[in-house]
Amino acid sequence: MTFKVDFKVRDYECDLQGIVNNSVYFNYLEHARHEFLAYKDIDFAALAEQKINLVVIRSEMNYKDSLRPGDEFYVEVEAQKESKLRFAFYQKVIRKHDQKLMLDAVVTGTSVNERGRPFLHQEIERLFS
Amino acid sequence: MTFKVDFKVRDYECDLQGIVNNSVYFNYLEHARHEFLAYKDIDFAALAEQKINLVVIRSEMNYKDSLRPGDEFYVEVEAQKESKLRFAFYQKVIRKHDQKLMLDAVVTGTSVNERGRPFLHQEIERLFS
Amino acid sequence: MTFKVDFKVRDYECDLQGIVNNSVYFNYLEHARHEFLAYKDIDFAALAEQKINLVVIRSEMNYKDSLRPGDEFYVEVEAQKESKLRFAFYQKVIRKHDQKLMLDAVVTGTSVNERGRPFLHQEIERLFS
Amino acid sequence: MTFKVDFKVRDYECDLQGIVNNSVYFNYLEHARHEFLAYKDIDFAALAEQKINLVVIRSEMNYKDSLRPGDEFYVEVEAQKESKLRFAFYQKVIRKHDQKLMLDAVVTGTSVNERGRPFLHQEIERLFS
């Protein structure tokens, strides 16, 4: 089963080209990842409070087509362990009415402690269970 | 000579981890690219008015370290023609006080007309002159 | 009947204080207004395409309490004609789990044509029907 | 002497109407206030780290005209003590090339401690010195 989060484009997310601004896709992907974490009982904000920060170290995004005002879409999330300290999220943005792929992305993250050193909190192990 | 734009982190760009949110780097990179276009006498907003849209088709970003409230930094831009219809921007985000590389990125773009078809306006040729 | 739109706080909307940034409430209010317009069959983006722009001329916002990561809430919208060319939106942000009022606002708008002159498109009359 | 911060509109701040989105003025005003605080040796982010939060309780904004792509402008800040626990910021957004007033605003704030109770840190007294 692939994890999905539903969205609808909000007008303020569109730029002077009349389409969703490129940076906003990062917001969509992040929100979908955090909902996925919550689903796995991992609380991003609570971890941040404890100074354990999940951070992105690399993103690759392929923009296939542009979302427009009012478009409904969903974001898919799949997680995969890359190494002891790295995990990758495979994400797709799909427009609802025609199931068109708008963007696909791979976002690689790790977990760091207060001093910015790699640190895999056991809570994060749940990501792959 | 490498084109550079100066920035300073604004508090509202920081998220609950107390660091600049990942999506905001995309804003920084975009603003630097548009300043670079302006320097080459290419007006992104005016082209959009004419329904000629410069669009990003791929981005690769490597996050090396996190910008924090008040940090001063600059963004470098170098453009390279990839094919008849594609151009790549090589971009770096450098923190000023210690010249530390915070992020490097390759952003690939193209130019499309009103119907979303590839169309290289002659104005854009200036990018490589 | 009061028009309502459901929302959930997204982590990227929170700032370094760990709460939703003040500017984001403007986004929430705007999105709720545009959904209200759509419900009244007024298409903000399509009007903008025709160079008829609905613009805000004044906002008053009272911040009562702060939304936090994961909070679910809704935004209420009521519209009232203020004069021939002005309309006011009375808006409230209400946290779901305890029905607490987080923010109330009055946003006054008008409609302008291509040259920025007041112009009340008949489509907008629907707002008060 | 009135405190001023220089800005230039960035294209990503513009929405599908081709003008700066209303919510973005709140970002501009906030950044100018925080620069003003820094000038008075008050560190907003450091206070937030100590769980002392400067919060906005009311904003009134009058939108006079719209900033457009590439516009240069500055934001003025004047602070005034309203009561023992409240302070008001009088702010103006002025377009540079013709000194046109684009927006004026009054933003009222207070300071709260970890439990959200009013608490005026002595550092904040500097605001009025």
Automatic annotation (TrEMBL), chains A, B, C, D:
Keyword Hydrolase in record: yes
Tree of life domain: Bacteria
Chain ranges passing through the membrane: none
The keyword Hydrolase is annotated on this UniProt entry: yes
Keywords: Hydrolase
InterPro entries: 4-hydroxybenzoyl-CoA_TE (IPR050563), HotDog_dom_sf (IPR029069), YbgC/YbaW (IPR006684)
An MF annotation (GO) of this entry: fatty acyl-CoA hydrolase activity
Family stated for the protein in its record: Belongs to the 4-hydroxybenzoyl-CoA thioesterase family.
Protein name: 4-hydroxybenzoyl-CoA thioesterase
Organism from which the protein derives: Pseudoalteromonas luteoviolacea
